[in-house]
Write a structure and sequence with these properties.
426 residues; mainly alpha
Amino acid sequence: MSSHSSSTSSQPAPFDLSAWRNVPTVLMVIGGIGAVAAAILDPKHAAFSYLTAYMFFLSFGLGGLILTILHHLFDAAWSVPIRRINEHLACLLPTLALLFIPILINVLMAGNDNIIYHWIVLLKEGKPDHAVTSKYPLFTVNSFVAAWVICGVVWTVLSRGLRKYSLEQDKTGSIECTRTLRRYAAVGVFLFAITLTLAAIMWMKALQHEWFSTMYGVYYFAGSTWTTLATVYLIVWLLQRQGPLREVVREKTFYFLGSLLFAFTVFYAYVTFFQYFIIWNANMPEETFFFVSREHGVWFWVSMVIIFGHFFGPFLTLLRIDVKLLPWVMIPLASWVWLMHYVDMTFNIMPVMFPEGPHVSWMDFACVAFIGGLLVKLFLKSLNAHPMFPQKDPRFAEAMDIYVPEGKLAQAVGARAAKATSGGKH
């Protein structure tokens, strides 16, 4: 008991975050005003800036969803204390689906000079090229809208369902909640793969519709999960420092998060390199032009930033085992991960409008501020509205490194059930 008290008292003092409470609202308001002004002054540039910010923040929702799904699929114990954080990140997806509406407006209502998807302009002008006709019926306006509907519905059902039964488990501790969560995960992992790939292809890769890549969905998945892991590490560290997770987060929690971040650093590099290598080796014009256009002008140097900043920097930093437990290394690294992922999204989207090099604009900052401020506000609202961590997960004792003999566990569960049935109070 004394060792526990001493470890608790040795925790650093929590930060005073009261001054930051209104920052998300301020960012959302200022960014929203800026985004509207951008849409009026330069609709096409504003649409590209908005899409870049959107695909960047979509990664957090999708990353939270897959981490929640994987937790239930593998019946993991170490991730029990942080599961609720991933659930709240996943539940941003319904809002993100609605935030795609400005892109739909650009597709359906903008003049041909302002539409950011060239293949839609070709369809509206009645002059579809071979790439559009050969990919029929995927590349049609109806399919574009249908993809948005399908993704929005699937993400809403999965994210809300996983959190609903997780919160129900907090109340009842019923084994049926655990079984239902595993069923959701078993089906959800396939639906997740399909919808993520559909979104990455229809919303980002289709900006250059002639391009072929069977790895693009995996590429976006790797970058999204990588970014989300860094974000979860930062959130868990803050919540432990502030107190809500102080009693349940262990050293192994940070170690495993850091190890997964290291693994996805390598996985992202593997997918990205072999996508490039296979396309370079095949040397087919409808595939190589995507990379050839990004080796011109300033974009070449952006690609170097991605190679060294997105892979080599984090890889070499995370190579040591003990680094994963050092907040003074991992917290700045999390910020660096965000920057690199945004650069990666810019590298995929912006060369379509600016083939000679990136044009950093206030429109980019306005769109990031608006979407980011709104999502942070919603996340904090969800975080404060529910228990910070699962209360009655069957693997909670294992997550706490506590051994409970099977007989005593069954006896305790039976006693709790009898007490609940008789109407007694805990």
